[in-house]
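Entry 12.
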Amino acid sequence: MGRSQKLYLKAKTLIPGGTQLLSKRPEMFLPEQWPAYYKKAKGCQVWDLDNKEYTDMSFMGIGSCILGYADKDVNKAAKLAINNGNMCTLNVPEEVGLAKLLIKLHPWSAMVRYARSGGEAMAVAVRIARAKTRRDVVLFCGYHGWHDWYLSANLASNRMLDGHLLPGLNPLGVPRKLKGTTYPFEYNDLEGFLSLIRRHKGDIGAVVLEAIRNDYPEKKFLNTIMDLTRKLKIVLIVDEISSGFRLNLGGAHLVFDLEPDIAVFAKGISNGFPMAAIIGKKDVMNIAQDTFISSTYWTDRIGPAAALATIKKMKLYNVQRRLINSGKQIKNGWKTLAEKYGINISVGGIDPLAHFSFDYPDSLVLKSLFTQLMLERGFLATTVFYASFAHKEGHIDRYLKATDSVFSFIAAMLKKGDLKRYLKGPVCHSGFKRLT
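Predicted 3D structure (tokens):
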């Protein structure tokens, strides 16, 4: 056990849950072995507290570092913002420049508000929608953060059934009076959506969905949602927090000819610096002046400065093409190697956000074993690959060679059985259910 693992044991006595983000808990990767803390990160290389070096072929900062860690151009913009004063009684001009750029990239929009994280930005968007329509009910499809409006969908008539709709997300602490204000539907499930529309027609203030996550949308699904929300004067919110700036320069909704009333961005928009944007149509966004939405650190300079630098670089180098190509290489590599060794896997996700799963009853054991063996070979790797501009051909080649070796071992162990005996620690935890 190294310094990183020991520090995490201490952290769990000081920080509820051990970390600030569920997706960064070591138990989600490899309990007792995952290097929980980093000393330095550059490109797609990470050094833990014992100076062990790893190549990150997993989440790349949970999808936030689309250009790679410590990108020199974005860091330069952030340092200049710091040197010129990150916070002041006056406002920063960069927020106006960023608003102009985002509107130019999304011609259907006309106004922009800012936050500094995806979850709070989604809460802002839902507040604006409810204020505009004067209606409380929200229909949603996807994962949209931790706030009360979202978790209220997991409140059941019987407290014992709380958490039933979205397993893994506990609504404890969410006021029970919010029950019946939020309802989920599955991606591409048009009939499920229409059923909710029929049941709550006069009370729906917003429909929220991720533009894309795992499966590509069916045209009729998106067109029906767009047409019905317009007809019924419901605010349509597209969550681009994960999908934005990965398939194209801007929101993925542009690829599918989906025109929302509001779109929300975070994560990759600023390459690892806190930033989020809520863009929308003027008649919808203007209502933000009539409800109270305000926070001191939404006015800092680093966020918009980093976002401007990130978007500029993405445009200059056609970063999205690299992300798509890298994801395709990884997905094809997984499929080819699984077939080579007779391992049953399912591969999915859009190319820049690729993932696979082991199709076996003890899939979490296999996932843990894969992570453990890849870690021993110098890779931060799980069954997910978030492509970044920092991933070069050499990284992908070395990763697939290591995967070849690991799949060979796993195939042999599958024939022998009792896979747990090859693990050096506990099995990893499962995540929460997604609707996309």
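Annotation: The chain has two domains: 3-70+318-422, 72-317. The first strand starts at residue 38 and ends at 42.
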